[in-house]
Amino acid sequence: MRKCSVLACVVLLAVCADAGALTLEKLVRAYAERRGFSGVVLVARDGQPIYQGAFGQAHPAWKTPMRKDAVFRIGSLSKPFTATLVMRLAETGRIDLDATVGSYLPALYAGSAAGQATVRQLLAHTSGLADVAPRYTDPFWQRDARRSYTPEEFARAWIPGALASEPGVWRYNNNGYYLLGLIVEAATGKSYVDNLKQHILTPANMVDTGLFDGRTVLPRLAQGTVAADDGARELPPYIDPSVSWSAAGLYSTAHDLLRFDTALTKGRILGQAAQREMFTDRGRQYGYGWGVEDWAVRPGAALPVVLHTGSVPGYQSMLVRSLSDRVTIIVLDNAWRGAAVVAMARDMSDLMHGKKVALPKRSLADGLGPVLFRQGLEAMRDAYTRLRAQADAYDMGESALNGFGYTLLRKGQREAAVQVFRWNVEAHPDSPNVHDSLAEALLASGDREGARAGYRKVLALEPDNRHAAGELEKLESAGP
To answer: Tell me: the pLDDT tens digits for 243-282?
Structure first.
């Protein structure tokens, strides 16, 4: 791994001394006040915390303030743990990364196409396995995910032997990480949890991390909430923890995640050679269980980071590890504010590395969504006119409008979605993407002629846009 140069360390120390905790505090507080962040933030350098903050409420119904040692479900931030565990077992000769699923799990996958996938492919999301539905509105999450499964039962029911795509092609895959948990058990004869404790949690001195089962009382567990359509906070829809398991089933604290980071750095849970292999980009900026990216912090300067996010209804998490200068950023959230958590982590990294950072603006969706669902479309139009005059306070950017439009489209609010996409077209007429989004919403609303016009506009701006060309061809061949 690359080490921090003397000059880089001096610059970093100067930034921290000049801006330091106060500026980080101001930044995170702005996300809490303007973007609804509720949770815990920890920023460390060389394993030592330099900023910690707790915002919002651990139990909104009881008005219980958030604590810095609160426990959170971490969703897919569990994947780095599972990957590290598999790499540790490979390092000690218990798992062969080139062996197949069928060789470890013959009763489930012998003779099947899925059985030919290798452990490496599972780690890198290139196995081609069928995966669970990506959206929580899918019937799987509404019905089947509410029952309890043993790991073997879940695999038999929801991880078929037939592949969904060509092996070797990157596609994020929760089921692959579920099978890795089963392979750990098959290779060792011990449970996934016992392996996790033996090889990671105990050596790293992680005392507040484990597998969430929904039954065990966890002291200091923050209650996750989601936003209702009218803006109120409510409990998330129930999903049985057994469907997450080794793919997204862990809970932790900010301090325990820092202990995990430190144990990796010091080689206490995995050797440096195995870590280099784990952090090698295997496609789509992803290694084995970790995102592998270069973040631009200054013109001509890229910051190598390994990271992962995690999301289950009610919770969002993110861990960012800068490999060159040992800055670690941990964000745990119990308000399911995915976009805000990711943006805040990027802003904190930029701030720590000397890049100018602006305080976040308020969410347009938060300002308009409750108006729509409480008072109707006309009221939302009026509210947009008022908020547009506050462009310095609300995010009116292309991505903000586009994201809000797709949220409405998923909720079945097609007319409102069309309106939001029209606003985006008015604000950004030269962007092919906004015309494409409007055409998609018009088609969903039954306006085929409007969709044709939209896709033609996309192609006028971007002649090689394959999606628009394909959609237009289908519309033209289908007739009026």
So the answer is: 999 999 999 999 999 999 999 999 999 999 999 999 999 9
Is there a contact between 237 and 145 (Cβ–Cβ < 8 Å)? no
pLDDT tens digits, 134-167: 888 899 999 999 999 999 999 999 999 999 999 9
- Give the span between the Cα atoms of 97 and 239, in whole angstroms: 32
260 plus 120 within the same structural domain: yes
Q: Is 76 helix (H, G, I), strand (E, B) or coil?
A: coil
**Residue 44 included in any domain:** no
- Extract the runs of DSSP E, i.e. beta strands, from 253-356: 291-298, 301-312, 315-322, 327-333
Tokens standing for residue 245: 């398991």
Residue 26 in any domain: the answer is: no
Structural domain count of the chain: 2
Indicate the helix (H) or strand (E) that contains 325: none
Assess if residue 37 is contained within a domain: no
- CATH code, domain with 423: 1.25.40.10
Q: Which residues of 19-45 are buried (b: 16+ CB within 10 A; e: fewer)?
A: beeebbeebbebbbebbbbbbbbbbbb
> Which tens digit of pLDDT belongs to each residue from 27-64?
999 999 999 999 999 999 999 999 999 999 999 989 99
Q: Report the amino acid identity of residue 129.
A: L
Contact 305, 11 (CB under 8 A): no
Give me the residues paired with residue 52 across strands: 42
Q: Which domain holds residue 471?
A: 364-478
| DSSP secondary structure, 166-198, as one string | -TTS----HHHHHHHHHHHHHHHSS-HHHHHII
Residue 219 CB coordination number (10 Å): 8
